[in-house]
Amino acid sequence: MKLLWGFVSLAFVVGCEEGKKILDQGEEERVVEEPAQVPTEPAGGENDGSDDAIAPAPQTPASSPGIGPTDPPYTTEVTFPSGLHLAGLGTVSALTATYPDPASGLLPFATSRQRHYAPVEYFIDIRSLSDSQRERRVATNFKLNEYVRIPERNGDHHIYIDAEIALHAQQLRDAWGGPLVLTSTFRSPEYNAAIGGAFFSRHMYGDAVDIKANNETMAFDLYNLAKFLEVSFLDAPENTIVGRNTPWLHIDDRGWPLNTPDTR
Ligand SMILES: [Zn+2]
Q1: Is residue 112 part of a domain?
Q2: pLDDT at position 43, please?
Q3: pTM more than 0.85
Q4: Is the confidence at residue 35, as pLDDT, over 90?
Q5: What mean pLDDT value characterizes the chain?
Q6: Which of 26, 105, 165, 224 is the most buried (most CB within 10 A)?
Q7: How far is the CA of 250 from the centre of ligand 1 (A)?
Q8: How much distance in Å is there from the Cα of 160 to the middle of ligand 1?
């Protein structure tokens, strides 16, 4: 097995890329998201930012340039809503090769959607991130480490984090008005399969997050708030909330609006 190890270098610039996704017709969702990983992290992992020593960067509105779908094209860099810019993402051909083939006939969507399931081509090597880099924000209230520590705990060293889902997680946090805890971010295809994740889970593409809810009421509140964000997909309450001892919210930005409010 040949591995092409990537490297990661960091610089901090304000993103200026073009590209907000074109919204089009929704389709029926048949992928059932798997239970979230048991959150072992304390709720204190998320900060309010009031003690943030980093100069605040302007939050990029969803409609502004700089945040858009990257699935595909994947590139060697990503700029988050905070302005945090990661460059030098590297190829890991052996990892890319583990992604399911969207043309296999197993993708439960129209052929035109296959392009959104192109295997991730460039990854962040989380072993190259310093502690101070991990403390940087991807958005006002979320540190890079909050997206990194979960796959790291799961044994994944190369990950991808989509800027658009980082924006939507922050917008949901803003709407909620208090700390939110991420319980699942990126998953490698191998890890996703090991825990029984959906075959084409968006967690593998770095644009899905699961958010912990303390109880069913909080979960429904988050669900209803998220309905008004421009996320591509919200997993159904019967899959993640109803009857669950540890309910959660799954949101993702798979590249087209599957069940956003205007297409519901
Ligand atoms: Zn999920």
Answers
A1: yes
A2: 38
A3: no
A4: no
A5: 79
A6: 165
A7: 4
A8: 15
SS3 category, 261:
helix
The confidence band for 257, taking pLDDT boundaries of 50, 70 and 90, is: confident
- Around ion ligand 1, which residues have CB less than 5 A away? 33, 210, 250
Q: One-letter amino acid identity for 139?
A: A
261 occurs within a structural domain: no
Cβ contacts of residue 262 below 8 Å, gap of 6+? 23
- The whole-angstrom separation of Cα 214 and Cα 248 is 8
* Structural domain of 135: 2-252
- For residues 73-96, one letter each, b for 16 or more C-beta atoms within 10 angstroms of the residue's C-beta and e for the rest, the string is ebeebbbbbbbbbbebbbbbeebb
**What pLDDT is stored for residue 51 in this prediction?**
36
- How far CA 102 is from CA of 19, 39, 105, in Å, comes to 23, 30, 7
Q: Is 260 domain-assigned?
A: no
Per-residue DSSP letter, 141 = T
Looking at the structure of the chain, the number of domains it has is: 1
